[in-house]
Design a protein that fits this description.
By secondary structure, the protein is mostly helical. It contains four helices and no strands. Helices cover 83% and strands 0% of the residues.
Amino acid sequence: MTNLIENVDFKKLQDDLFSSTRKVWLASLGVLATVEDEGQNIFVELVERGKKIEARGKKTWTRTRKEIESTTDEVGGKLEELGGKLDNSVSEVLQRMGVPSRTQVEELTDRVERLTGQVERLTTPKKAPARTAVKKTTAKAKAA
């Protein structure tokens, strides 16, 4: 074993080890530099992609919102139309049954109120007009 150790050039081994370690160190620094450069490029690219996705999302949201508003308006119009038809149908059924309409009831109420006022005026006894005081003149006053 002594022969083996004597044949080894420790200086060369040390230099080779140092050289290999330095190469690994430099390669590591190269990786970091590459990651930094490429990382920045990738970051910029990701930001640009994000902007495009955001713009697409906004367009989709705007279009969807408009479609929902249009559909809501359409449904609202249909409901109003249906409500009007229902009101008309109910009014027709009530008329066939002899139930007076709101307008007819209001007209009758007004007429009854007018007639009630006329009846009250006719049945309330009139008060006699108040007499004005007449001054009595005495004979003395006439003679003077």
